[in-house]
Hints:
heterodimer, A: mainly beta, 3 helices, disordered C terminus
Amino acid sequence: MIYRWKSRFFRGISRGFLGVLIPLFLLLLLAPGGSLGKATLQGEWIVIEGPGNTPETVARDLGRPDLFRYDPFLGTAVSARNLRVAGEFQIGNEREWDGLLRYSTVLEMDVAQCGQARIDVVRTPEQIGELRLERGKIATVHDLKEEDQCATANQLRVAGRLIMRNSAITGNVDGQFRPGAEVDIAHSSFTITQSTGLDLDGVQAPRLRVRHSEFLDNSLYGLSVARVKGDLEFHRTVFRGLVADIFNRGQADVALIDCDFKTIRFAASTGSVACRWTVTCRLPQPHLRVVAESEPGAGRPERGTGLADGNGVCRLILTEFVAVPGATQRQPGVNNSTPHRITVYEGDHPLYQLANYYVIMADQEVTLPLAKEALE
Amino acid sequence: MFRRILLYAAGAALLIGGTVYLNRDSQRPVRRIDVDPSEAMARNLYAHEQLGTHCLVDPDVELREALRNRQDYALAHLELAEKFYARGRYQYALDRYQRAVELDPQNARAHYGLGLVQTRLGQYKAARASFEKALELQPDLVDAALSLGLLDYRQGRFEAARKHWQAALKRDPQNGYARELLGMIPRGEA
């Protein structure tokens, strides 16, 4: 009986103790600035590990304002050392964005101190680095009057995860993505590089999503791809490079959907770049089937099918042409898929047809059947 | 001594007389720069930039500096806008085109450029107004007619597109692009 009383007593004590300890632990975790991550200086690198790191926590962990400092009033961090992201590192926060300045947090690499700035987002069997920018910007500190310029060639090398929303990377930072990289970029920009804005080599296409973004002012290429597994897709993205906007180094099939580019260059005998556009078909009835087929004589015939929704709207993604080595622009009978013949079916019965329809730009709309005044 | 004085006096007379003679027409001084000084300054600085400096990109930095000195110079804004447009910097181009149009509302090229960048940004209604204004100011601006036709084509108004392209071809019978576009009119069958 005493034994039972003692064991009950100690059980009660331990439960009570845990009952206090766990909430306290959670409070520490969720408190402002609470983080299980850490940042340490290892040689010439600031290594960021664990979850929940931000420029503020990195500055606090290091305690070396000469190497990494953060100004909460300006929302600006300055790093005098290269960064290795082996954990989670978030720059900027959509919830904290006040809507006045364009970015909530800016990380500047002080190239005068760190030389050629490097940010490595690593992937090892033990850990996957994740760099997240939300209303954030990575730039470089320099003394030239134009804020985006920088004379040193800097690099962002991603083998882990990169997530960008309404953010920017500038100041001559090449984005290099390697096998294993997971990329999710939306409404963001990479601008002003001495080399290539987006360099993809050996990446897996399903791990890559880029949309509504821009890769501008690159001395060489806006986009460079090589050895990509799967079909890469980009949506509504602008590419500009002085030598060429798109550079396919081989073994890569890329689809540019509603994208903005002019020149394509190949450096191998393999690979392709498909130029595709979204066409909106407006139909008088819902749930009709729409079939778009290339007209006879197309160099790369295709067939696309869609179903109208409850409002009678059907969106199809159709190909204008497929650039290949030796044919980098639309060449009728060689690499074109358009013009298309669009047929509207009710069940298996064709209702209307539109022939010789060219798909050549973004946001094309067509109402079927055509009104009399729209026809010849 | 006397000869030296004579020599100096003759030299002075030659110098002054020559200057007076060369500038005798007050309407056309010999060394007057017959361009707008601001344009000269802007072009000079831009050319200097183009010759190659160690600046990475943005050869328009000096041009923008020039603009700071002469904010009301429409042509500089227009040229800057065109460069931004070519580089895909559409928002910057939009701002400059709008400024150029404000400063020089009769400039058809500015309205046309504004229409182009509005098209790129998906502002189709505004683009239509800009192209129409450009055509109103300069009816022989064939590119504006072609662009209007493309806007109509984009929105499925094929007959309107045909009319614009035919008008462009009438203005410029050698325009191969207009011919190519006219071949793109679809055929509807019920």
